[in-house]
User: Fold these one by one.
Assistant:
Number 1:
Amino acid sequence: MSGLFAEHDNYVIAGQVSSADAAIALVLSKHPDILITDLSMPGDVFGAIGKIALQAPLTRVIVFTAFSSVESALKALSAGAVGFVLKGSLCEELFEAVTTVRTGEVYITRQYAAQVMAGLRDENRRRSLNAAIRLSVREKQIVGQLLQARTNKEIAEVLKISEKTVKHYMTSLMSKLHARNRVEVAVAAQKNNELERSSASN
């Protein structure tokens, strides 16, 4: 993989590791913009993703793996990863994922995107929040588009607003819902919506 990125002048390889613990150490010492990891790496990879998300939130984690299951993608994203790409994909998709997460968005390999978002909705039904957070009509529209795995640009086109405005709403949603990324916004918003409905019926 290092050879793949070495061919491009706009990427610098901070290092390579062969275990989950070593990945944590590398991130905490080198502070890379992006960490690309494999679920087959020795050690607790999901645990490492969670620790990196908490201790080095500016480092975006992409999972590049042969573990082709929606469950693996859900677990990785729930742990704190912001990208999930299958090794059987074209090299261009990995570069697309890197470009996407660098802008603050989440990338899910296209063949799993809809299933992963559906899985997140199911997971939300098993969780609860202590208090409902009031979202504006526009914020709810943004969340609705998120749940269809649309990018900021696509959301802007559907809602007929600027991409800059979409980013503004996304930042607001992350703050309101205490979310670190777009996936967590979708998860938290769904839980919040269920709580609002529950409160309204009481």
Number 2:
Amino acid sequence: MAPGSSGTESRSESGPDDSDSAADGAGRARRPRGRAEVREALLESAQRLIARQGPSKVRLREIAEDADVNFGLVYQYLGTREELLRAVYQRVSARSATRFEHIDDLADAIDIFLTADDSVGRIMGWAALEGDPADVFGPSPGLQQVASMMVRAARQDGLDLPEDEARLLAAFLQVVALGWRLFGSIGLTGAGVEATSDVDRRVREWMRTLVESVVRGGAG
């Protein structure tokens, strides 16, 4: 089964419909020019198409057409398919990291995990299904920032949270949050639970309780 968005909060799926075409036309009044514009347009199209179809089904020519860019520039600016996937993830990862830059509260970090770009989870899911994610995904600045926040929070209470444990917890939180957003409604249906805003609130509370338990020394 292909990775898709099925979280409990209302989210719109971007498909190849009229609204997509209108949005693309409005956002790109002219063809991209120059290395920076062309590369950004290619990565934007690649991220959208890969999240929707999976990397194995997306052709480089299709990405070029979607970005309104000459096909030859795909290899010039992005390289091989593996290099393209890595560039897409690094782009998403860098954008996600900026959301953590100006927060100090771990509760806010959890909210960011739970409201992350859905395409991140889809791309990660496709990579896990179609190949070795380690070949595509590198270190995440956002996860490093969250881990550092946990270490600082523990120190404020006079506790010593090992850096590797903080990084492990940050990774766990990301996976739980992405899994909930992608497959939460499926799990709720199977358990006979109605999808409501209160359900999402409780999930947030459970994640915060887990973080507090580890950071404040309640778990070893």
Number 3:
Amino acid sequence: MSGAPTSLTESSTARAGVVRILDISPHGFWVDLGNEKLYAAYVDFPWFANATLAQLEDVQRPSPDHLYWPALDVDLSVASLRDPAAFPLVANPTGPQR
């Protein structure tokens, strides 16, 4: 197993609305959801790589499986933080194929 762990489970219960940023490094940051802590690596979530501390900490949890950073206009499912490989980044630089 290589790389940083993506989840640390705790005994407390999760609730919508409870979310905070715990630690920020040059490679990513930890998100505390109350019942678990998830790591967001910038390589997997590049939208956060150049974000300010204030932008990262301005995170909302409208539902148990939804996180939103309004200053960055980034919506993520908690599932994508748990398993980034299941949600690969795909972009088509030339636009849609017709």
